[in-house]
Write a structure and sequence with these properties.
The complex is a heterodimer of chains A (about 325) and B (about 290). By secondary structure, chain A is mostly helical. In chain A, about 75% of the residues lie in helices and about 0% in strands. Chain A is globular. The N terminus of chain A is likely disordered. Chain B has about 290 residues and is mostly helical. Chain B has two domains: about 70 residues, no CATH class; about 170 residues, MetI-like fold, CATH 1.10.3720.10. Chain B is about 75% helix and about 0% strand. Chain B has 14 helices and no strands. In chain B, helix 3 packs across helix 14, helix 4 crosses helix 8 and helix 5 packs across helix 8. The model of chain B has no long low-confidence stretch (mean pLDDT about 85). The chains are: A mainly alpha (about 325), B mainly alpha (about 290). Chains A and B meet through helix 1, helix 4, helix 5, helix 6 and helix 7 of A and helix 1, helix 4, helix 5, helix 6 and helix 11 of B.
């Protein structure tokens, strides 16, 4: 009786999914396939006709041989790592402080709201704001540095390549550590409080509890943060594009900015930009699949170990 | 002896607590300071800024800066209107159709249900940048590059929102009401619109905020698609402030930035509790 009912209503599952599927096919799947196809043609400029290349992988070869692309790829990873390590470090530290009952940080709610705030502000605005804050010859940071006597006279900070890269990393860090902290805190609050009680009874101190109990228990959330941050980092566009237009001397050029400038500025080399997009697509897919695989493997191994251990103990008891 | 160690522990605790507060206050200042300088400088003249770029006290050149700002290509009203149209349109579509798709995934038992859900999880992480060349070429061929609909309609398929709505439905949806509504003779579509949507209100509210903010802040897609000045969104308007025409008009640049930030900050201060809760809720799925 019940089964019959389910069969009868099942068709509505298809009906209600139609809008999503149609929109997905038209606005996502088709563009992905089209990008893929374009990567094997010579599409550029104002033309729309697709002429396939005699040597199918010529665009990919030329991208891999392109020093600017390789430079952009290196920059992208460098900027991401320099933002992610301090970001996860600070977020973990704040999480430890805000969730530890012994500290009872007053105003934790207000601090959370303020730390998260940069995340919801338009990245385009933040990029141009930081450009204005660090500009030469006159800008707030130069003004402060000269007043404090750190600089003798205003310095052209944004012309320094390392400084430029570091600042892009810093902006990303500043925009995202609050978000990561909120996510980690909610993960810690989801841990069974009895585990913490047990640790307390066993005489574990705050540091031990954090590393031995808290971190292992939020591992899947840490992985989620890592993967989403990596994907976001590999697509970083707004800040590097508007902060210094990829400069000085391509020091802040990321792959997204490279692809944008190749396809939508200058001579509109769509086919090559499409090839670069496909390379990034594969890179992202492989990296995130790899991370999930490493994490899942460990979990499975751990469970296996635990089962073995339990069996051994049972055997000993017998 | 024992009392001593407890005393030391207490002292150490107080020192650590002071360190925690100092660091938290410094980080809070770091969050506010850039925006404070921006807003103050929006009221100062370019000469004042050139003499001293940092001031905590506003000046009286707001009107003057506004005249210079809007006298050139920056048009906050046009940007605001376009951004509102796109953000409201895409948020509405994304929320309605994501809830509908999630409802299909949870309430009905159909053959391809699991395969469909797996596909949604798989495509969730595909970033828009990767598909942009194909998307742009498609719009270009169809003559739709300056059509705001191309920035609104794709929201019908928002895998992330579907994923979140499904989690919420699985956890909080009372399936019995569907049964009793069916007995009362209500159609399936009506049951969704009149029973499911009201129950989903809390989830819809948080997801709507995030959909709106991410659409409002989106630079990449509009920058590629919109070439006509009358279609520019707020982030594209902002990018104009970087151009040569405003080169030395510091006061106006700060004012332009302020105009784009102010609505967001006001909205954030009103909704911050829900937003933080929403971020925390979203993480549970991880």
């Amino acid at each position: 009786m019940k089964k019959k009912k389910l069969v009868k209503y099942g068709k509505y599952g298809y009906f209600f999914s139609i809008p999503f599927i149609v929109a997905f096919l038209f606005f996502s799947l088709y563009p992905i396939i089209y990008t893929f196809v374009i990567a094997f043609t010579d599409l550029k400029g104002l033309g729309t006709e697709l002429n396939f290349l005699d040597e199918p992988f010529a665009n990919f070869k030329s991208i891999f041989a392109n020093k600017t692309f390789l430079r952009a790829l290196g920059n992208t990873f460098f900027i991401w790592i320099c933002n992610f390590i301090p970001q996860i470090g600070l977020a973990l530290l704040l999480t430890a402080w805000f969730t530890d009952k012994r500290f009872k940080v007053k105003g934790a709610g207000v601090f959370k709201i303020l730390f998260y705030m940069p995340n919801i502000i338009t990245a385009a605005t933040i990029a141009i704001l930081f450009k204005a804050l660090f500009d030469y010859p006159m800008s707030p940071v130069n003004d402060i540095m000269v007043s404090l006597g750190v600089f003798e006279k205003p310095v052209e900070m944004l012309q320094n390549k390392m400084m430029a890269k570091g600042l892009v990393s810093f902006i990303q860090f500043w925009m995202w550590y609050g978000y990561t902290m909120v996510i980690l805190i909610s993960g810690v609050l989801g841990i069974d409080p009895e585990i913490f009680e047990a640790a307390k009874v066993d005489g574990a101190n705050g540091v031990q509890t954090f590393f031995k109990i808290t971190i292992p228990n939020i591992r899947s959330i840490l992985l989620f943060t890592l993967v989403t941050s990596l994907i976001g980092g590999l697509n970083m566009f707004d800040i590097p594009q508007l902060f210094l237009l990829g400069g000085p001397d391509n020091a802040t050029l990321t792959t997204s900015v490279f692809i944008y400038q190749l396809a939508f500025q200058g001579s509109h080399l769509y086919a090559r930009a499409a090839a670069a997009s496909i390379i990034m697509f594969i890179l992202i897919a492989v990296l995130s699949a790899g991370m999930f695989y490493i994490m899942r493997d460990r979990d499975a191994e751990k469970i296996k170990k635990e089962i073995k251990e339990a069996e051994r103990q049972k055997g000993e008891e017998a | 002896m024992k009392v001593d160690t407890i005393d030391q522990k207490k002292k150490g605790g107080i020192v650590l607590k002071v360190v925690i507060y100092i660091i938290c206050i410094l980080l809070a200042i770091l969050s506010i300071f850039p925006f404070w300088i921006m807003m103050v400088n929006a009221t100062r003249s370019t000469t004042e800024i050139q003499q001293h770029a940092v001031s905590l006290i506003p000046s009286g050149f707001l009107k003057n800066n506004f005249a210079v700002l809007t006298g050139k290509s920056f048009n906050p009203l046009v940007g605001f209107m376009n951004s509102i149209i796109i953000s409201v349109g895409s948020t509405t579509l994304s929320i309605y159709f994501s809830t509908l798709t999630a409802y299909a995934l949870v309430v009905y038992d159909w053959k391809l249900r699991n395969a469909f859900f797996k596909m949604i999880v798989a495509i969730m992480m595909i970033p828009a940048q990767i598909t942009m060349i194909g998307f742009y070429q498609m719009c270009y061929k169809l003559g739709l590059t300056n059509n705001l609909l191309m920035l609104i309609l794709p929201a019908i398929a928002s895998p992330m929102t579907v994923f979140f709505m499904r989690q919420y439905l699985v956890a909080a949806f009372p399936f019995e009401i569907v049964q009793s509504a069916r007995i009362d003779g209500a159609g399936e579509f009506r049951i969704f619109n009149q029973m499911c949507l009201p129950i989903m209100k809390p989830a819809i509210a948080t997801q709507a905020i995030f959909a709106f903010v991410s659409s409002w802040n989106n630079l990449f897609t509009p920058l590629v698609l919109l070439t006509d000045k009358k279609n520019y969104t707020m982030p594209i308007m902002v990018s104009l402030l970087r151009g040569d025409i405003y080169k030395t008009e510091y006061g106006s640049i700060y004012l332009g930035l302020t105009l784009t930030v102010l609505p967001l900050i006001v909205m954030y201060l009103i909704l911050s509790r829900y937003i933080i809760e929403g971020v925390a809720m979203g993480s549970v799925k991880g």
